[in-house]
Every structure is written in C-alpha cells, then in structure tokens.
From TrEMBL:
Residue intervals of the Histidine kinase domain: 193-398
Record keywords: ATP-binding, Chemotaxis, Kinase, Nucleotide-binding, Phosphoprotein, Transferase, Two-component regulatory system
Name assigned to this protein: Chemotaxis protein CheA
Any Pfam family the entry gives: HATPase_c
Biological source species: Hymenobacter qilianensis
EC number(s) recorded for this UniProt protein: 2.7.13.3
Length: 544
C-alpha cells in the first residue's frame, strides 16, 4: 500500500511533467514570436504554479529556480526586458534544468547543480550580462533528449461513476450466484462463487479507492471564505484546518460543499461574537473556527467548531413555540438535544436581522437535506458561552452501503447501518405506555417504540394510541437514530447485516417518501430500503 508521501509525490510529478512539457512548447513559440503575449503569460503562470507546488512539497531547489524564472518572465511581460540576445539561451537552459530536476524527483536521484544557472538568472534580473552555460540533458547512446510520460492519468468522474455502477450490478449477481450455489449444494459452483466473491470485493474497493480525494482539496478553499465573511460581519476570526489528508469519495465531497460553506458562514454570523462582545466575555478578540476531518470505523467525520456564544436552548425553545412547531407544554419537557433539532426545520432562523450572510429563511435544513441524501447524519453539540460543534457523519461510498436486513409481514426490508443505533429483543412487560405512546428504557434513555407495520399502514390519519395488551411474546426492535432523536421499530424478524447496492425506486413507488431506494437480494427478491429520516418525521407527525 502506498504511503501518503508517495501519493503526493506522484501527484506532484504528474503536474510538474505537464508543466515542463507546456513550458518547452511555449518558450519555443516565444522564440519564434517574441511578441506572443499568450505564450508569455502562460510561461509566467506555469512558473508560478511550479514554484508553489515545489515549495509545498519541500523541493526548494525547484522552487528557487522557478521563482527566478518567474521574475524574469514577469520583467519581459512588463516590457522591462526583451526576450532576445543572451536572455534566450539562459531561459532555455533554465527550462531544461527544471526538467532534469523534476525527473530527479521521480527517480529519487540527486538534483543537478543549479549554482551557475541561478547566478545567471540573478544577473539577468540585475540587468547584467550572463555567462553562457548549457544544461546537462539526458541523452541516449546516439533520438537526443529523453522523453517521459507521467505514470498518472486523469479520469473524468462520470467514467468512474459508470464503472462503480457496473460493479454494483456485479455484486448483485454475485450474491445471487452464491445463494444459488448454497441451494443446489454443488461444490464446484460454491467454489466458483467464493472466488467471484473475493474478486468482486477487491474490484469494488479498487474502484472506490480510485474515487477518493483529500478533504484538503475542499478545506483549502475556506481561508478566503472565512476572511470575506468575517470582514462582512465586522468580526475577527482565526481559521484552523485539521485532517486535510483524510480521504473521501469525490462525489460525497461535492455534495457537502454547499452544506459546509453554509455551516462556516453560520458559525461566523451566528456563533462568533464581535471583538467587543468577546472582550466583555473575557475572551480574546479573535474568534477561533476549526475545520477538521477524521475517520471513525467506516465513516468520515467532518467538524465545524467555533468558540463563540453557543446555542441558547431556551431561545430556540421559545422560537419553536412561536413558529407553531411544538406545543408549549410539550416543549417544556424536551431535552437540549431535542430542542436543538428544531434548528434543522425548514426556514427556521435565529437571526435578528437580514444580512448578506443570514436571516433570509435559508437555514440549517438545507444542510440537513444534503446530509440525508447521502445517508449521513448531522450532530450538534453546544455549550452556552463556550461554542458550538457541528459534526457531519458521512459514508465512505454512496453506491454501496452497509445495511441491516429484516422481515415484516414475510417481506424483506433494509435499513442503512448509518442510521441504525442497535437491535434489542424485549418482553412486553419491559415496554410501557406513556401519553398514548409506547416507551422503553434503553441504555439509560427513554425511547419511543412503534410497530413498523402500523406506521407503514397508518395512511393519512394519526397513529392509534398504543395498547400494551396487544403485544405477545418477545418483541424484536431496531433502534434508529436521526437528528439526535431515537426511535424503536418493532419488526417480525432480524435477518442479517450485509453490503447492498441501492437503486432508485421506480414508479409509482417513487412518490412514497418512506422508501429511499431498492436493492436486489441474492434470492432474486426485490428489497425496499427504508428512509429513516422520513420514517422519523412521519412518526413525529402522527404520534398521539
């Protein structure tokens, strides 16, 4: 397995070799036509990019030569120097030397000497005549310059998407073949199915690995965002980035881009106080904002944390009552997590005034919808006066997901593991009716329980009040977790845990929000995948 350093070096080499080829082409064009502004501008840009990349990787010699070359091309661009006379061979030598240095990085060899070249480049900058030299270039025994191609290729993401979809189809057929092998009892078929399982497993992870990108590719865009938003809000904010080398599926990163932008803007607009407010609260004038990423089992956790004023739970409670989201008597008994969940309701905003950043009715519900579409979770922790942390819990892949399979009325269903907290079996006497709702004490927490069959068949009306006497025998319950709310679903039978490929629901079922997709099991039967966020919202809307 490659180390991160090897991966970064390969990426640097791929771009640097492209830069070198483009430099060679453009400097040849410039020699033919010294007035070619486009070629000159491109040479300046290429030198600047190579300098930045080389310095970031610690290749300081390449960075130094690129910097001097960039300076001279800048002088030529500004008409302070002409691409003529002794300037031409020195710059050609510089390009050739850069090529040799880039190849040395790829071969992990010693860098060619650059003292004479740098001295000549410095003379040109100072307006002095250079001492002409030539670069040592790689030659064969007789074809001249050595030509090299990069070991990396660039692939359009839609091609990888198509490839992953094909892998998903292959996994479905693999599971069917394995089931068939067990049913028939043919040893040869079972052996072939086992081999197919290993091959498709490796193929799946190889394709998923090819789609991974560093979180830093998104994080590194935020320093400018933070600077601009802080200036607009008249606040001082220091941004800290952590875990930029954590890798995640590129499509997932694309989907959460707007959500992360909203959370950062929200943290600055609502969370972090003005310098004057912070000083009154005995805080340093500049607020601290941290964007971090880490892995946890099969998930990637991205956090947006600030040291601002925190979320005033009582203010949110009052706002939720004003908006008619909850009755006052019910709101009074809600814990802090349940109250903070109102922040994710459509249009909910605590902004006192409309600005370019906040108060326009576009709230955290937009963020929640983006995370829900990925089968992820959004958690919020806050301490009044100390700050707030939003945590995005994201899957590593959106095509293949871990799921818990279960049976209800002799039909198979699946629930994504992302929203599955635990499974329990309880006797009827362990369940109690409180306010018309069945409740259970699970892990020191009171969790509402509902028969999934009743919930799915409830139609337009409210759920019937729970009747404890209807329960017979041990009840198999799946505890799901969404938006800091837990809900127990009574099912007929637990089946197994397995990776599934989720496909969109076809008509007319696509109009039913409760189903997030379908998958095909090894038996050949279609299995509906339940949408936990939709189930939770339905229960809350229908509870007595």
């Amino acid at each position: 397995m490659k180390s991160r350093e090897q991966e970064y070096r390969e990426i640097f080499m791929s771009e640097a070799l492209e830069y070198y080829d483009a430099m060679s082409r453009h400097i040849s064009e410039l020699e033919k036509n010294p007035e070619d502004t486009a070629a000159l501008n491109e040479l300046f840009r290429l030198m600047h990019n190579l300098k930045s990349n080389a310095r970031a990787m610690g290749y300081n010699q390449i960075g130094e030569v690129s910097h001097e070359m960039e300076t001279i091309f800048g002088l030529i661009r500004d008409k302070e120097k002409s691409f003529a006379g002794t300037v031409v061979p020195v710059l050609f030598t510089g390009v050739d030397t850069l090529g040799a240095m880039i190849r040395a990085v790829g071969e992990e060899a010693e860098m060619p000497p650059t003292d004479d070249l740098l001295a000549n480049l410095d003379r040109l900058v100072q307006g002095e005549e250079p001492i002409l030299i030539t670069a040592e270039s790689d030659t064969d025994e007789e074809a001249g310059r050595k030509l090299e191609l990069s070991d990396l290729v660039y692939i359009q993401i839609k091609k990888l998407d198509h490839l992953l979809n094909l892998v998903g189809e292959l996994i479905i057929d693999r599971d069917r073949i394995m089931t068939l092998g067990r049913e028939i009892g043919n040893p040869a078929l079972q052996a072939a199915a086992s081999h197919l399982f290993r091959i498709t497993d490796e193929l799946q992870y190889s394709v998923m690995d090819a789609r991974l990108v560093n979180v830093g590719s998104l994080f590194n865009k935020f320093p400018r965002v933070v600077r601009d938003v802080a200036a607009s809000e008249q606040k001082e904010v220091t941004l800290r980035l952590e875990g930029q080398d954590i890798q995640i599926d590129r499509n997932i990163l694309q989907i959460i881009t707007d959500a992360l932008l909203h959370l950062v803007r929200n943290a600055i607009a609502h969370g972090i106080e003005t310098p004057q407010e912070r000083q009154k609260a005995n805080k340093i004038p500049a607020g601290r904002l941290t964007l971090s990423a880490q892995t946890e089992r099969d998930d990637v956790l991205i956090r947006v944390a600030d040291d601002g004023r925190g979320i005033d739970v009582e203010s949110v409670r009052r706002k939720a009552i004003e908006r008619g989201l909850v009755r006052a008597d019910v709101a009074a008994n809600l814990d802090a997590n349940a109250v903070r969940a109102f922040l994710f309701e459509p249009g909910f905003s605590m902004a006192k005034e409309v600005t370019e950043i906040s108060g326009r009715g576009v709230g955290l519900d937009v963020v929640k919808l983006a995370i829900d579409s990925l089968g992820g979770q959004l958690r919020v922790e806050s301490e009044l006066g100390q700050g707030t942390v939003f945590t995005l819990v994201l899957p590593t892949s959106i095509a293949v997901k871990g799921a818990l399979l279960f049976e209800l009325e002799e039909r198979s269903y699946a629930i994504p593991l992302m929203h599955t907290d635990s499974v329990v079996a309880m006797e009827p006497e362990e369940l109690h009716v409180v306010g018309g709702t069945l409740m259970a004490r699970i892990q020191e927490e009171n969790v509402p329980i509902v028969n999934l069959k009743t919930l799915l068949h409830s139609g337009d009306g409210p759920l019937p009040a729970a009747i404890h006497e209807e329960l017979v025998g041990r009840q198999r319950i799946i505890i799901v977790d969404y938006n800091n709310r837990k809900l127990g679903l009574i099912v007929d039978r637990f089946l197994r845990q397995q990776d599934i490929v989720i496909k969109p629901v076809s008509k007319p079922l696509d109009t039913i929000d409760l189903f997030g997709g379908v998958t095909l099991l090894g038996s050949g039967h279609v299995c509906l995948v339940l949408d936990v966020p939709a189930l939770t919202r339905l229960f809350l809307a229908k509870r007595p």
